[in-house]
Amino acid sequence: MSVDVFRSRALDGVAHGFLGRRGGVSTGITAGLDLGRRGQEPTPELIENRRRAIAGILPGAELLTVYQVHSADAVTVIAPYEDRLRPHADALVTDRPGLALGILTADCAPVLFADREAGVVGAAHAGWKGAIGGVTDATIVAMEALGARRERIAAAVGPCIARASYEVDDGFAQRFAAHDPANERFFAAGKPGHHQFDLEAYVVHRLAAAGLKRIEALGLDTYPDEERFFSFRRATHRGEPDYGRQISIIGL
């Protein structure tokens, strides 16, 4: 089975893809194209899954990821580095051909960026902490340092947990309202003391507020679609001991 790749019209002309779980060699509860854990030593299955992921997006490229910590930090990549030297951050940018930037997710929002004219791309991992902290803003600033211009940057938000699947409590909603009262629009009423949070819409809002003109949200919910996506929350609700991570990649 070939890898499952979801692409964005907003990023046409740039090598990119949001990959699902199909087409990999992992087995068990994380069967499929599972791209691994923080600090995990490479296994034969992980190495093969990485090879298949790169081949599906930018054959021959060097895949680079970060040690994701739910921060608002973006790093600039100019050369390959070993996995053990991955920086602790949640976004990468580059203007170097042959480098593929990868972000792992399992409900959080993967965001891919490109300024075609400048030849600059970026990838960000936007969980709720990184999203409210400004990880997408930091990615745009890092791209501008390489010559990108935000009015030219296109961005796409890939598969993530959708509002219908993302129940949060009052404290969570209040944290967003304290940051900006207008954020209440991203919460729908749920059962008493709870709300349904629209992470995808919030990330799109942050991108638009930063001045981006071309933004696409793929509208794919990771939680209910077990055949196509891994989901941290689904695994947690089932009491499973582990969960897989899918990858989103962009490169020049």
Report on the structure:
This protein is of the alpha+beta class. The chain has one domain (5-162, 198-251): CNF1/YfiH-like putative cysteine hydrolases. It has six helices and 14 strands. It has helices at residues 44-57, 128-133, 135-144, 170-179, 199-209, 232-238; strands spanning 5-6, 15-19, 62-64, 74-76, 91-94, 99-105, 109-115, 120-126, 154-157, 167-169, 187-189, 194-197, 214-217, 246-251. The strands form three sheets. It has a six-stranded mixed sheet. The protein has a five-stranded mixed sheet with strand order 1-2-14-6-3, with helices on one face. A three-stranded antiparallel sheet has the order 10-12-11. Strand 1 (5-6) and strand 2 form a beta hairpin. The protein is globular. The two termini are 26 Å apart. The relative contact order is 0.20. The mean pLDDT is 96.
What is the name of the CATH class?
Answer: Alpha Beta
The fraction of residues assigned to DSSP E strands is 15-25%
Low-confidence stretches: none
**Number of separate strands:** 14
Shape category: globular
End-to-end distance: 26 Å
Radius of gyration: 17 Å
Mean pLDDT: 96
Number of domains: 1
Q: How is the CATH topology named?
A: CNF1/YfiH-like putative cysteine hydrolases
Task: Count the DSSP helices.
Answer: 6
Give the strand line-up of the largest sheet: 4-5-8-7-9-13
Instruction: Please identify, by name, the CATH architecture.
Output: 4-Layer Sandwich
CATH superfamily, by name, is CNF1/YfiH-like putative cysteine hydrolases
Series of secondary-structure elements, N-terminal to C-terminal: EEHEEEEEEHHEEHEEHEHE
